[in-house]
Amino acid sequence: MKVLKFGGTSVANPENIIKVKSIVQRSPDEKSAVVVSAFGGITDVLLNTLEQAANQDLSYQKGLEEIEKRHISVIKELLPVQRQSTILSKVKSDLNILETLLEGAFLIGEITPKLSDKVVSYGELLSSFIISEFFKSEGVDAIFKDSRELILTDNAYGKAAVNFKVTNQNCGDYFNESKHQIHVLPGFVASNSDGNSTTLGRGGSDYTAAIIAAAVNASILEIWTDVSGMYTANPKLVKQAKCVAHISYEEAMELSHFGAKVLYPPTIQPVLGKEIPIVIKNTFSPEDEGTLITKNTNGGGKTVRGISHVGNISLLSLEGPGMIGIPGISKRFFETLSVDGISVVLITQASSEHSICVGISDDDVKRATAAVNEAFEYEIARKKINPVIVEQDLTIVALVGDNMKSHQGLSGKMFSTLGRNNVNIRAIAQGASERNISAVIKKTDVKKALNSLHEEFFEENIKQLNLFVMGVGNVGSKFLTQILQQQTYLKEELKLNIRVIGMSNSRNMVFDENGINLKDWETTIAGGEKADKVKFFEKVKTLNFRNSVFVDNTASKEVAQGYPDYLKNSISVVTCNKIACSSDYDFYRELKQLAKKYNAPFLFETNVGAGLPIIDTLKNLIASGDKVKKIQAVLSGSLNFVFNNFNDQVTFHDIVKQAQEEGYTEPDPTIDLSGIDVMRKILILARESGNKLDIEQIENDAFLPKESLETNSNEAFFASLVKHEDGFQEMYKSARDEDSKLKYVAQFENGKAKVGLQQIPKGHDFYNLEGSDNIVLFFTERYPNQPMIIKGAGAGADVTASGIFADIIRIGNF
Ligand code: ADP
Ligand code: ASP
Ligand code: MG
């Protein structure tokens, strides 16, 4: 004989019930017990309706109507008309009793546990009856059997304890004698010795099936649900979770105890001793293998088999100087909780002589606090022990696996993964069986914690980076194109899954938790909501994705001022915007420190030399113990363009105009021609070499006449260039006569930086610099005479985008 159990979703509607029938008929020669849950969602509706009634809220009648409608519509759809009337009359008579019970609660204004169990039992009683009638009408040799006649419990309504002796006898007798093939039974419900309905706890239909399976020595217990087995983590929260093919009873028990709802925790107990295999299968995909649960497995060679979590946890701590050396405090503490029927989900290792800390359900907090404070009233009054400290809104995450005990370093890996993702750990516990390690964390961090742990322990290879891109203009759009192009390569070769979750330009912003499709992001953003920097940040923060990266492709001061908010939430920042690193020194320091403190890289490689690896090289030199003595560099693509094209055959005005038109300068060309842009870049290099420097301390040997610098419109600026053409021609001739070229050079030495136009003689490293190329010479202790040289294209949207990309990959490898 075999036992099958179908959960709420599996029997939620006629379409699903038809699927159930075909599954049940798969083994026509074997006797079977088919245990069913209430139609999906009905248990909750019943409980809410009862509560409304007891609160004297008349809307309970709506709940009742909904319950009636759901059941009657299933009958009307599944059963032939000629059979409907008898079934409808039985169902209606049950619904009448239910109505009377609810009216009773309404009048008395109170719910007793006994009444609650009576009311909620109708969910399973109705579903099982209707399903059995449907089976019969389809010619299946089926019969309805009320589980309350088989399963006997004590009086602990809501979660009654089974009297196995009587129950086993009842089940054995009944199934032995029955000549039918299929027996449909309500899950969850039982009765006590007074004949009153009791229930086995939420999710208890699994348990009903296991009790029957053990009683009749079934060949197998099949749990049919809405997922294809027990997964490495809850598949609703972790998309990458995978079905575990084979798992041991103990592992399954541990996972379900820590929240894997797919199996109600007590379910394993009855079948474990008899070694009846359990298989978890998907009603909606019956061909999937599912998960087999048996005695021993070799763990598939794996240490961690699954990650689960239990929400709504509170930590209760008792501490105080009077606890040291006084025996029996823990005993009194645990006894107090136990007498009040409060179950302790977790005891932390932090329990030491002067502090005890336990995890309990949020629902029990009030009672537990009152009880413990009362029990230690004497000590609290004398200040020997402090009143109980309560922390709420917590969740336990647990790693589970039989083989974990023989492996060191798992907890270290677990905690460093959580730490790296800024998940604060409130308490830690390791099960005595060493089959689990659990951590108590904030409720709001659950999704991130599960996904990062899953990535660490099950996806070993693929790391997901979640990008939030602000600025999708020139550079930003190139960047998105590059990601799209490289996505497959990065996944396959670098094991990086890069997704853009949010993006914004100055008008609109959009978010897609599954990743924005980069093939038509322009249309997506055009249909987005109104851009708002504060809301953008708030959204990134509430999404709370692991490995989040904020990418700033703007040149906005306001955006740069938001970086601390991102870093403080462990969101990395990658930027080509120079403002943050070249403004106030304290702000730059603060950003560097926040990055360190919150484990969130702050990278800005493109601030100097676009895609050239200048800052990264500098960092590596310093990290390896080298010291920078001098930096010499040509860092302005725009000024290079201007001086490479300027001669006595053209005017300075025309060349600058051309540079502006071809996009080599900022829209306001004075930013480049005044040397400010170069000052910012040498400032950043000086700071990155370990110097405290501000922009005002940099000497700027400006070559533009004061008048040109002080113009306040582009028009006036260009007019002043025409006026001073003679001066520019003189600069050119003087260089040419010396066989030199004009280059705008930045230099840093002995703590001082300066920028200015220089005549560079033939043979110098700078002489042959083409187009908009940049060059940097690092003179260091290790490179005293022959500097380390980095040279190449130092401007342009494409190379800047690729520099940002490189920073993202650095974070991926972090
Ligand atoms: P049923 O109504 O069939 O008893 P449940 O809702 O009680 O179904 O249990 C199935 C649900 O358990 C899944 O839909 C899934 O959301 C949840 N779940 C939590 N953890 C896990 C896990 N590790 N593996 C599979 N499912 C899980
Ligand atoms: N219907 C009950 C519940 O929702 C029992 C079950 O489905 O297992 O808790
Ligand atoms: Mg369930």
UniProtKB/TrEMBL annotation:
Q: Where does this protein act, in terms of pathway?
A: Amino-acid biosynthesis; L-methionine biosynthesis via de novo pathway; L-homoserine from L-aspartate: step 1/3; Amino-acid biosynthesis; L-lysine biosynthesis via DAP pathway; (S)-tetrahydrodipicolinate from L-aspartate: step 1/4; Amino-acid biosynthesis; L-methionine biosynthesis via de novo pathway; L-homoserine from L-aspartate: step 3/3; Amino-acid biosynthesis; L-threonine biosynthesis; L-threonine from L-aspartate: step 3/5
List residues of the ACT domain.
399-477
Offer an example of a GO molecular function term for this protein.
aspartate kinase activity
Segments spanning the bilayer are: none
Q: What's this protein's name?
A: Aspartate kinase
Q: Which cofactor does it need?
A: a metal cation
What GO terms describe the biological role, i.e. biological process, of this protein? homoserine biosynthetic process; lysine biosynthetic process via diaminopimelate; methionine biosynthetic process; threonine biosynthetic process
Catalytic reaction annotation: L-homoserine + NADP(+) = L-aspartate 4-semialdehyde + NADPH + H(+); L-homoserine + NAD(+) = L-aspartate 4-semialdehyde + NADH + H(+); L-aspartate + ATP = 4-phospho-L-aspartate + ADP
Give the CDD domains listed for this entry: AAK_AK-HSDH-like, ACT_AKi-HSDH-ThrA-like_1, ACT_AKi-HSDH-ThrA_2
Annotated Pfam families: AA_kinase (PF00696), ACT_9 (PF22468), Homoserine_dh (PF00742), NAD_binding_3 (PF03447)
Question: Which NCBIfam families does this entry report, sorted A to Z?
Answer: asp_kinases, PRK09436.1, PRK09466.1
The record's family statement is: In the C-terminal section; belongs to the homoserine dehydrogenase family. In the N-terminal section; belongs to the aspartokinase family.
> What are the entry keywords?
Amino-acid biosynthesis, ATP-binding, Kinase, Lysine biosynthesis, Metal-binding, Methionine biosynthesis, Multifunctional enzyme, NAD, NADP, Nucleotide-binding, Oxidoreductase, Sodium, Threonine biosynthesis, Transferase
What role does this protein play?
Answer: Bifunctional aspartate kinase and homoserine dehydrogenase that catalyzes the first and the third steps toward the synthesis of lysine, methionine and threonine from aspartate.
